[in-house]
C-alpha cells in the first residue's frame, strides 16, 4: 500500500493537473496487454497504420510484464495546461545516471533496446515517445483533453458539495482517505509512506489508468494517476445535427460540421466525432471553406478549422 500523509486537510494540500506525457506513458501498457483496455480498441484500430512507423521496440521495452513504466515518463505536472513539448524536453535534459536508475527500477535486466550507453539510449527514447505522440495522440488530444478537463470539473463539484473524503472515495475502489492519510492499495510491489508537507499531493486524471497509479519510489513528488470519468464515451461518434433548413440546403454532413466547429478542430478529430473517415470529412471541409463558411490555420502538424462569421450567421439563420 502507498500512503501519502497530508499536511493539511484542505483543498490547498491537494491539486489537480493534466499531463500529456503521463497519458503517453500509461498508454504504453497497451503494447503489452491491449485486452485490458477494451475502451481504447477503436483508438488502436484507428492508429494501426500510424503505429507501423514507430520505434515499437523501444516503446514496448518501456514497460514490463507488471505494466510498470519508468517514473521519468510521469513528471509532476504543474497545471491543467501542461504542454507535452515542455514535459518531453524535461525528460531529454535528465542526467543519464538518473534515466538508467529509473529504467532499472522497471527492469532487473535492461532489454536490448534500452541497453548500452544511456547517453545514446535516452535520445532514442525521446524520439520514440515523440513519434508516439505525433502519430497517436496529437490529432485526438483536444478530444482527450476535454474528457480530462470535464473530470477535474466534476471532482471540484464533489469537493464543494460533499467534502474531500467523499472525493477520494469516488476516485477509485483502491483509494480512500483515512484521517489525513491517502491510501492507495497496490498488489504488485512493496509500499511506502511519505508526507506531502511542503509539496502537496497532485491528482492526475488519466484515460489509461484502470485504478490508481503512483510513482514507483517515494523519492518522486507525491502524485496519484487515477481513471478519469467518461472514458467509455471517448471514441463514440457524436450525434450532431444542424438546423433542418440548413441541412436541406447544404446536406446533413456539412450542417453537422458547421454545428461542431464553434471551437477549433482538426479533420481527424472531426472524423472521430462523427464516425466517418478523415478523407470524407476533408471533402466537406474544403467545400465549406471555399464557400467562406469556415476558416483554417495550421497548428503544429495539424490544420484546425473554425466556423467563420458567415458560418455563424448561416447557422443562426438556419
TrEMBL record:
InterPro entries cross-referenced by the UniProt entry: ArsR-like_HTH (IPR011991), HTH_ArsR_DNA-bd_dom (IPR001845), Metal_resp_trans_reg (IPR051011), WH-like_DNA-bd_sf (IPR036388), WH_DNA-bd_sf (IPR036390)
SUPFAM superfamilies the record matches: Winged helix' DNA-binding domain (SSF46785)
GO molecular function list: DNA binding; DNA-binding transcription factor activity
Keywords (A to Z) from UniProt: DNA-binding, Transcription, Transcription regulation
Signal sequence coordinates: none
Keyword Transcription regulation: yes
Protein name stated in the entry: Helix-turn-helix domain-containing protein
Amino acid at each position: 500500500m502507498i500512503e501519502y500523509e497530508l499536511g493539511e486537510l484542505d483543498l490547498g494540500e491537494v491539486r489537480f493537473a493534466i499531463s500529456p506525457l503521463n497519458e503517453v506513458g500509461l498508454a504504453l501498457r497497451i503494447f503489452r496487454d491491449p485486452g485490458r483496455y477494451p475502451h481504447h480498441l477503436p483508438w488502436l484500430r484507428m492508429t494501426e497504420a500510424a503505429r507501423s512507423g514507430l520505434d515499437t521496440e523501444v516503446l514496448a521495452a518501456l514497460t514490463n510484464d507488471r505494466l510498470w513504466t519508468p517514473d521519468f515518463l510521469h513528471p509532476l505536472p504543474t497545471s491543467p495546461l501542461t504542454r507535452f513539448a515542455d514535459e518531453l524536453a524535461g525528460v531529454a535534459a535528465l542526467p543519464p545516471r538518473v534515466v538508467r536508475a529509473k529504467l532499472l527500477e522497471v527492469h532487473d535486466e535492461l532489454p536490448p533496446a534500452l541497453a548500452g550507453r544511456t547517453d545514446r539510449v535516452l535520445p532514442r527514447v525521446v524520439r520514440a515517445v515523440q513519434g508516439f505522440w505525433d502519430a497517436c495522440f496529437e490529432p485526438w488530444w483536444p478530444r482527450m483533453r476535454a474528457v480530462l478537463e470535464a473530470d477535474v470539473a466534476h471532482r471540484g463539484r464533489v469537493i464543494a458539495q460533499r467534502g474531500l473524503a467523499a472525493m477520494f472515495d469516488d476516485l477509485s475502489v483502491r483509494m480512500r482517505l483515512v484521517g489525513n492519510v491517502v491510501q492507495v492499495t497496490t498488489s504488485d510491489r512493496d509500499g511506502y509512506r511519505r508526507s506531502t508537507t511542503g509539496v502537496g499531493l497532485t491528482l492526475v486524471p488519466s484515460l489509461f489508468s484502470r485504478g490508481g497509479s503512483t510513482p514507483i519510489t517515494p523519492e518522486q513528488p507525491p502524485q496519484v494517476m487515477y481513471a478519469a470519468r467518461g472514458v467509455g464515451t471517448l471514441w463514440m461518434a457524436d450525434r450532431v445535427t444542424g438546423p433542418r433548413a440548413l441541412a436541406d440546403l447544404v446536406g446533413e454532413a456539412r450542417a453537422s460540421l458547421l454545428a461542431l466547429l464553434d471551437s477549433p478542430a482538426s479533420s481527424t478529430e472531426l472524423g472521430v466525432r462523427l464516425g466517418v473517415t478523415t478523407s470524407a470529412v476533408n471533402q466537406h471541409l474544403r467545400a465549406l471553406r471555399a464557400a467562406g463558411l469556415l476558416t483554417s490555420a495550421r497548428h503544429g502538424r495539424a490544420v484546425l478549422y473554425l466556423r467563420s462569421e458567415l458560418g455563424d450567421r448561416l447557422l443562426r439563420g438556419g
